[in-house]
Amino acid sequence: MKNTAAKLKTAQSKAQVLMTELKGEIEDIRRLIREKKREISRIETAPVTMPEALARLEAYIAEQRDNSSLERAFRHFWQPKDHRPEGLSSLVVMSDGEGGAKATGLDRLICDLFAELLIERFKAAGHPDPDSTLPLAGRGERVAAIKREVLAIEREEEAMIVELQALGLRVDRRGGASPEAILEWRD
Amino acid sequence: MTTNEEVDMKTEESTPRYNEAKYRQIVEDYWGARHKFEAIAEERQALMGQRHGAKRVIEQAEQAANAPRFSYEPSPAPTPRDLEDARRVLARLDEVTESYNAASAENVSKRQLVQRLTRFLLDKGVRDPFVLDQIERLEVA
Fold first, then answer.
1. Which residues of A touch B124 (CB under 8 A)?
2. B121 in A contact zone (CB under 8 Å)
3. What share of chain A is helix, strand, coil (3-state, %, to 5)?
4. Which residues of chain B does A177 touch, with a Cβ-Cβ cutoff of 8 Å?
5. Residue B45: inside a domain
6. I want to staple A52 with a disulfide (CB 3.0 to 4.6 A). Which of A48, A74, B75, B132 is the partner?
7. Structural domain containing residue B90
8. Could you tell me if A44 lies within 8 Å of chain B, comparing CB atoms?
9. For the range A127-133, what are the long-range contacts, defined as Cβ-Cβ under 8 Å and sequence gap of 24 or more?
């Protein structure tokens, strides 16, 4: 009888150790999932590289210049009378003008007149740490690959939760756990 | 429809795309937790109704204990039984409030899980009556 009680106590203590280990493993898995998700977030929100940002600015300037017309912008000064509505400056008339849709637009005017200056100032302005930037190309594929990894890890986590539940140990599922992993979804 | 297509359809129908038993278990677990939470909430509500009276009894007992020995207007002292009941009500309220907070948190997280799983299944085109039933039950509850 005494022997049985001792054996039971040993078994209980071994079970306790095992359960603690398993819970620790789940915690490790969850830590890994958090890291992977942080990585996804970093990839998705990282600024683009300097050449990409510059290319965007240049494309914008080029588009504005293509649609700009200095002739329309300066037309105002050729008028025999100042037709400016009260309170409007010449610059506003040059950019928005009385011509309505025909006017050149302030952004077009600026890009047309100061294209090189804009680019020069852009390069000189503060920009993100190059180590924090990422090229746009390939981001989608990287994120998709990490998401696949996360799903595989989450399936592992779910399998452990089921195992622990079978042992009578309650482990709550994470609020953000993937339904695909929990429900063992098959496409 | 060719015979092969019919066979494919039957196979598709008969092969569940997810662990239905687990979904049901999670859902039942949630409703169980919810009933538990409702029962605790009901008891807490009843105890909250008695709290004011219980506090009053304890205050009266304290006043009576602190009153001068030869007072012209002695404070009415509650009976020992009333005092004991009042203390029991407040102690039970503390216990129930603790359980209520835990059950409330559990209820919220389990409900969110069931909602997410159910929405996922619906998005995937599952139209199992049990799944559809959850939508109605969750809306009502």
1. 185
2. yes
3. 70, 0, 30
4. 113
5. yes
6. A48
7. 21-140
8. no
9. A127/A50, A127/A53, A128/A47, A130/A49, A130/A50, A132/A46, A132/A47, A133/A46, A133/A47, A133/A48, A133/A49, A133/A50
Two structure tokens written together for A16: 């306790």
Whether residues A185 and B17 touch (CB distance < 8 A) is answered with yes
Site from B114, B117, B118, B130 to mutate, A interface, most A CB atoms within 10 angstroms:
B117
What is the number of alpha carbons within 13 Å of residue B119 lying toward its C-beta? 9
Taking CA atoms, what residue in B is nearest to A181? B18
Asked, for residue B2, whether it belongs to a domain, the answer is no
Q: What is the ipTM of this complex?
A: 0.71
Domain tally, chain B: 1
pLDDT at residue B5, rounded to an integer: 55
CB B48 within 8 A of CB B115: no
Phi-psi region of B140 (alpha: psi -120 to 50; beta: other; left: phi over 0): alpha
> Reduced to 3 states, what is the DSSP secondary structure of residue A98?
coil
A26-81 residue pLDDT tens: 999 999 999 999 999 999 999 999 999 999 999 999 998 888 778 777 877 888 88
In a domain, B9, yes or no: no
Chosen from B12, B14, B17, B118 to mutate, greatest number of chain A CBs within 10 A: B17
Chain B nearest C-alpha distance from A164 (Å): 14
Q: What is the pLDDT of residues A98-153, one digit of tens each?
A: 444 455 678 888 898 999 999 999 999 989 999 999 999 999 999 999 999 999 99
B121/A172 Cβ within 8 A: no
Sequence-ordered alpha helix ranges (H) in A46-105: 50-66, 70-78, 90-95
The structure tokens listed for B26 are 């999670």
